[in-house]
Specification:
Pfam families: PRC_RimM, RimM. The protein is mainly beta. The protein is built from two helices and twelve strands.
């Protein structure tokens, strides 16, 4: 499995028991949908994804998932995967409808502004800041547009376009 074909689920943040159970900090709006997983991919130090099978998996205090892996049955084994990231195939993501979208699915979409028309294609999404931002390429120039309800008006999956209403001066700041 390639990392490009997967989505980031969370990170192993601590051991839970001496029997090798670990706690995973999930990056999910609905953590409960991941309670009955049978397996996940663990990103190893050499940047490969390795499947790990799950004996038992349950929510632990809101956004933590307590996992008992088949292959991890003691503290030493748990220590070897501590801090590692977990991934799942994109195919297991629930389908979103309407104006909700996953960041990876809108890469390549055109961005259509109410005033300026087509302001470019989405090349990426920066979600490392407190506010997620579309990274848009317009003829070699980068435009950054915050992903907020007041700006994103419509997601048109059929035509691979996102309709936006950018604040006055934002687009001109990058293209002017």
């Amino acid at each position: 499995m390639r990392k490009e074909d997967c989505f980031y689920l969370g990170k192993i943040v601590s051991k839970y028991s001496f029997k090798g159970e670990v706690l995973v900090k999930l990056d999910a709006d609905e953590p409960e949908i991941y309670e009955n997983m049978e397996s996940v991919f663990v990103l190893m130090k050499d940047n490969t994804l390795v499947p790990f099978f799950i004996d038992k998996c349950r929510l632990h205090k809101s956004e933590l998932l307590r996992i008992d892996f088949e292959e991890v049955k003691d503290e030493a084994a748990a220590n070897r995967i501590m801090g590692h990231e977990l991934y799942l195939p994109l195919s297991v993501l629930p389908k979103l409808e309407g104006d909700k979208f996953y960041f990876h699915e809108v890469i390549g979409f055109d961005v259509l502004d109410e005033v300026h028309g087509n302001i470019g294609k989405i090349t990426g999404v920066n979600d490392s800041t407190s506010q997620a931002i579309f990274e848009i390429d317009k003829d070699g120039k980068e435009i950054l547009v915050p992903i907020i309800d007041q700006i994103v008006k419509k997601v048109d999956r059929d035509n691979q376009a996102i309709h936006v209403s950018t604040p006055d001066g934002l687009v001109e700041l990058y293209l002017g």
